[in-house]
Amino acid sequence: MFRYLPGIAALGLLLVAVPSSSQTASLAQDLLRDWKAQRETMRKIADAMPAEKFGFRATPPERTYGEQVLHVAGANVMLLKYLGAKVALPFQTADADLGTFGLTMKTKAEILKALDDSYAFGEAAIAEFPEPALVESITGPRWIGQATRAKMVYYTLGHTQDIYGQMVVYLRLNGITPPASQRGGV
Description:
CATH architecture: Up-down Bundle
Order of helices and strands: HHHHHEEH
Distance between the termini: 48 Å
Number of helices: 6
Number of strands: 2
Helix content: 40-55%
Number of domains: 1
Strand order of the largest sheet: 1-2
């Protein structure tokens, strides 16, 4: 009843496989989407620990939970300032202090504000660069050296995922299920 027409079948496949220009992904969009998604994930896990437990540390040589959050905030700013964006830094970092980057906030509210400010800075910094500028070479910190702006952003995202994993353990040691592990979590 139906006759196979190779040309028509190929045209149909082409129409299905090629996204419209409004669906075309870009590096700039991917970076911002990933940055915003991580911001939401980190805000949820940082907020999951009760304020009275922000001083908790799993073992004596480790950072406290609050210091883990400050480490992320400080690293976000320290690493993304290498992008060369014109947006103002939300706070200064002591780059030689790889623990908290010199951040000394103590209360949960102050620490969460630093985290929020670091992600707002990152979003504004990333948004400054058009697509071609994201693949331009910049000089990062000594352990990264020459890299594209895009690599600096993804390096920062990857670093935070490492700290996220540590924060999950801190929550679980305190009997708290991390938000992303709860039913329906992201």
